[in-house]
Design brief:
alpha+beta, two-stranded antiparallel ribbon, 5 helices, 8 strands, about 35% helix
């Protein structure tokens, strides 16, 4: 049975909000939506998970600055390459659709410039990418 999970697909240049998944093959559907062979889960504040390409850095995927900023704003100092998908997670670890509040928090984080403390952590995390760091310092 195919259902829709309210999610936010974050590409380096755009966002899309819904992911159709088959309840019996959710992992395969996420792999297909991200366009990867293997995915990893980045846990964020507010019971939000980001599914990301586990091999994004080594397979030549583009730096996903919007998803990286979102991760930093929501408590994870990780750098993301390629497509990311934000979903909600239950206390038991089950992937579910985003609530209205979670969706609003993600949209607000993606729409606003990062604050000074977030920029400081981004500069540290992205130090191997001096061009990006230079751009962040000019925000």
């Amino acid at each position: 049975m195919t259902t829709s999970i309210r999610s936010v697909k974050i590409n380096p240049t755009e966002t899309i909000t819904t992911l159709d998944v088959n309840e019996t093959s959710i992992g395969a559907d996420i792999v297909a939506a991200i366009g990867c062979r293997m995915f990893d889960v980045v846990g964020l504040e507010d019971d939000i998970d980001l599914f990301v390409d586990d091999e994004g850095l080594i397979n030549g995927s583009t730096l996903n600055l919007p998803a990286t900023v979102l991760a930093h704003r929501l408590g994870s100092r990780t750098v993301i390459f390629g497509t990311a998908i934000a979903v909600s997670v239950t206390g038991d670890g089950e992937t579910v659709g985003l609530t209205d509040a979670q969706l609003a928090r993600i949209q607000k984080s993606l729409a606003q410039k990062p604050d000074a403390p977030t920029v400081d952590t981004l500069v540290d995390s992205l130090s191997p990418f001096p061009t990006v760091v230079s751009m962040l310092r000019n925000i």
